[in-house]
Amino acid sequence: MASPETKCPPSSNIHVMTYSNVDARLPPIRALIFDMDGLLINSEDIIHEATNTLLEKYGRPSLTQSMRAKLMGVAGSTNSDMFHDWAQLPIPREQFRRELGEQMKDRFPNCEPLAGAEALLSNLCRARNISTGAKIELALASNTKSTSYELKVSRPKTRRLLACFQSERRVLGDDPRLREGRTKPLPDIYLIALDSLNSTLDPALKPIQPNECLVLEDSVAGVEAGRRAGMRVIWVPHPILAFEYQSKEKDILSGRSGIFNIGDDWQLGEVDDGWAESIPSLRHFDYGKYDIHVPL
């Protein structure tokens, strides 16, 4: 199995950092790639509320904590056999999918930024690497489709939050470069995001490498996708996820949760390899740990 160093994946208040405590064994961070749902905005909670509304409508119990944890961050999870075998709904799957879509269409315009998101993105928009002095590049990689994305950024506050990502550096779930069925936990969306960064990078600069990228994710599937892409990862789990998987945190951070069985284990990390960490919220992002300086 290849080590992280030899991976070759397939195709606010401003806190001024004046020091670096970066791990000298790792290259400087040049780019941060963000998930969106459940990390930057509260759309995961909105999906949970919409799902429970329909379950109640058809006389079924609300999502258990365990089931909710299994659904978070997985594209099409409420249309899966796992969910419907559990829910035992008295209506066809397609009807549930359609009604849930209508519920979310009504609710997504109410999305709000999550704790720490506005301050962190505001800081990173003008941040530089302490060691190199280079600008920190930003990209978005989200399973959400374009239509849902536009609903989620309906409010001015949420639109301003996501505006820090240049349109050509926003990779969504219906991006034509993302092949059908290749969503997280597969690495494709993060590798496409890296391509989008490099294609818009100053031509005088060397292309950014996967191990120079830091992925921020809330879901287990997203953490695995980032690790499979050969990138470093910060997991910012919803409190339900953090509780449900507390005994598996180290495995999740290495990409080895065992929840997904998709092969290509050579892409995964190793437990305690220093390439991933978990923090309780974006407010806890440690700029110095990643050699990042935020000027006044």
TrEMBL record:
SUPFAM superfamilies: HAD-like (SSF56784). GO terms for molecular function: phosphatase activity. It comes from the Eukaryota. PANTHER family: 2-DEOXYGLUCOSE-6-PHOSPHATE PHOSPHATASE 2, SUPERFAMILY HYDROLASE, PUTATIVE-RELATED. This is Uncharacterized protein. It comes from Clonostachys byssicola.
